[in-house]
Amino acid sequence: MIEMQDVWKTYPNGVSALNGIDVKIDRGEFVYVVGPSGAGKSTFIKLMYREEKPTKGTIFVNGFNVDRIRERKIPLMRRQIGVVFQDFKLLPQLTAAENVAFAMEVIEAPRKKIKQRVKEVMELVGLGDKLNNLPNQLSGGQQQRVAIARALVNNPAVIIADEPTGNLDPDTSWEIMQLLNKINDHGTTIVMATHNKEVVNTMKRRVLAIEDGKIVRDERQGVYGYED
Known about the structure:
This protein has one domain: 3-Layer(aba) Sandwich (Rossmann fold), CATH 3.40.50. About 30% of the residues lie in helices and about 25% in strands. The protein has helices spanning about 40-50, 75-80, 95-105, 110-125, 140-150, 170-185, 195-200, and strands at about 1-10, 15-25, 30-35, 55-60, 65, 80-85, 160, 190-195, 205-210, 215-220. The strands form two sheets. Strands 6-7-8-3-9-10 form a six-stranded mixed β-sheet, sandwiched between helices. A four-stranded antiparallel β-sheet has the order 2-1-4-5, with helices on one face. The two termini are about 30 Å apart. The model has no long low-confidence stretch (mean pLDDT about 95).
């Protein structure tokens, strides 16, 4: 599903974020990306959906050569990648259903299909009764569920989550993780950057540890391994 070959990333200010990353992530895996603050986790995540481009190296995501893809094909590639952020990134003037629908409207899906699919994914994330609520009428956990529904609505092959529980209380964090587990059980590949030690240590999944821009640990049923 995802492969990085000798990937380096140096920012214009001279900061070296990634230094020779080699990794393969198979279809259907659930992978945690951990490491100290500033280790390169966010850059690692952003390269997968072409938010950033590598300085050197090759990246494949679901058959797309991400580092060499033509600009006009980037939207096609991104349809197959759902992204979930720490701060939700919902449009405040739109209802929950409209936020989810927007991801389908962008690709010009038929209106009837949009309505049906939005209802399906909102039911899946447990918010079938919140379709018409604005984001400020929802709790933080509910907003993150809407964000996950938006990431899911186009049936992506992979979901990339950058600290999805970072702004949530412990109980709500567990609810979100159970939801991501359910999505993974249906075959969707999930790559999640996190500082949530308890979640990583309890839900034994593959762990990639990044330090100083390098993968220093790759464990099939790993632990968090840091105190921060």
